[in-house]
Amino acid sequence: MFFKQKENILEIDWKGFYKTVFALVVPMALQNLINVGVTAADVIMLGKVGEKVLSGSSLAGQVQYIMVLFLFGLTSGATVLTAQYWGKGDTKTIEKILGMGIRAAVTVTAIFTIAALTIPEILMKIFTSDPLVIAEGVKYLHIVAFSYIMMGITQVYLYIMRSVERVVVATVVYLASLICNVIFNAVFIFGLFGCPAMGIRGAALATLISRVLELLLVFGYAKVVNRDIIFRFTYFFHLDGILVKDFLKYAIPVVMNEVMWGMGTAANTAVLGHMGSAAVAANSVAQVARQLATVVAFGLASATAIYLGKTIGEQKLEHAKAYAQKFLFLSVVMGVLGGILILAAAPAATAVLALTPAAKEYLRFMFFVMSYFVVAQAFNTTMVVGTFRSGGDTRFGLIMDMSTMWGCSILFGALAAFVFHASVPIVYVILMSDELIKIPITLWRYRSYKWLRNVTRDMA
User: Is the pTM above the cut of 0.85?
Assistant: First the structure.
């Protein structure tokens, strides 16, 4: 009733709202789907090679996954500022943020590149003790590590373009990358057109080639097409002290939040990794299914951050409240649809992949767990990544994830696995319980409106 009255007073154009949100969500959902498609291509093709190879690539991919979370934290922290400055019309400040973001990305990805090239065995042993799986993962890391810096530059640039409502360019870049990856995956993994069958090395090489293509396309777009937000080397090397302070204030909690959340997900994988390759293989497929089922929900979360951030930057705080409620409703709808999709896909997944009977049995159960997990995740992600961060509330998510993941699901899941020696299904339910625990906490924070703040400065 409160929002109905507010809507009448504000005379909100809801038709225009949904049209704009649709224009933001669809390209970003496609981007998420394309990114998942790259992972799915590896899983499907390597799954036909063998369970050890699939497990090796999946666990080696956890290194890149943690790196991407650093990058996502940086870009999400930058989005807090860029979306609001975009609403304010200050493109010069956005260019400074772009320079800082790429500089930070190059630093982070260089560290991961060095680690993947020098200590790949140590990195793999974090996730599994199976020597055959470790050996396959090392082969993958030795090649794919060269793609990390390129990936960092591309991701930061495209995410900042998304925050200023230039969302289609990322869709085009990632679609071209997906097509490139799938083609070269098939050629190098199975040895088509006279090429030797390279197995897991072929998957890594295909990924490297697709990252080169992404970077070339981004350079072309930045040089030829985009003349509004320009990357300037001046802002890469020389930083604005006040803006750096703001960037760190909002980015660091997001980086820590994403890294701790990502390390939590990696910890889940590590727990399952020590329970056998069947559990690892089943979980790798279940995670791809989860990612596919949440592409629209995650696109909605990104659209929420952009739309609300711009609205707050325009000083339309009552509009932002009304819009936030609509995003909440849409997140639940997207989550339910994702859960239904996972249940419908379970029979096909178990029939197609060359998994052992034990792995197939685990996979059926994991798909059931994921069917309700994605509903909670869609709601929490839209609220934390979208609504809260749009107003500069970046610390709340960190505190909540630290307590619910590390203090509850991971702790008790590890105890169940290693102390009480519980079965894989029981351990899995416990490990996947954190999103359910978050729901009432997230709802309370949303209703407090403590997240609703304008964080821009008059940079002139």
Answer: no
